[in-house]
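Hi W.,

Here's what went into the run:
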Amino acid sequence: MTTTLITGANRGLGKETARQLVAAGHTVWVGARDEDRGRATADELGALSVQLDVTDDASVAAAIEHIAAHGGLDVLVNNAGMAAPGLTGPEALEVFDTNAVSIVRVTQAALPLLRESANPVVVNVSSALGSFTANHDPARPASSYPAIVYGASKAAVSMLTVQYARAVPEVKFNAVEPGYSRTGLGGLSRPDARPAEVGARNIVRLATIGTDGPTGTFEEDDGVQLGW
Ligand SMILES: NC(=O)c1ccc[n+]([C@@H]2O[C@H](COP(=O)([O-])OP(=O)(O)OC[C@H]3O[C@@H](n4cnc5c(N)ncnc54)[C@H](OP(=O)(O)O)[C@@H]3O)[C@@H](O)[C@H]2O)c1
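Here's what came out:
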């Protein structure tokens, strides 16, 4: 039995990832900063829920302790994320804290549990907007989409993935671009965005790799490598 924690799983890509991983047979912990919304999502999906604000050390520590008390943890999906409307210092700090610093916070807390797993896996949900390659390719939407702070925070997610993959070889760390998806962040009524369930498939593919799976990669659709 594989046990998976997904941060920010009460809606959007995190929720669809939870739905698909439950269907794949995982025991899924829906991490949500709002306890009621997390519980409602977990009840709907046949998952478990845990209060988890990725910007709050005490909340993260309590969530991992709670999961430990119920068994182990095999897969961590660092999915929680945000984009700020403005470019003030406090907004930029919040975006970096939520999208990038949180990966250090949650991963460090979860590592002792992950190291007990026979197949420990971490998936970091990144974005083509954080890819230098995509930002320099005129054929890609990322090259013309303004995302100063969000894009920079996702570039940090990429480097965290590379560094963790090298520093902690006993755990597989991969970054993923889910693709432009219809969510609160992507835009719920954008016709050019894909349904969240389609974007979530990219996350699910990396969350279900076997012991021979990759580490230190950045994948998009169909497992194709996205340039860093
Ligand atoms: N949608 C896209 O087109 C797209 C493309 C590439 C990458 N991504 C990435 O995909 C991930 C999921 O985003 P989404 O599109 O599904 O957006 P979303 O629908 O807006 O969902 C974001 C989730 O993150 C949670 N969250 C935000 N701050 C949090 C915090 N401090 N602690 C815990 N949870 C927090 C939200 O919780 P609340 O409900 O409490 O706010 C929500 O569950 C993000 O990392 C995003 O950058 C999205």
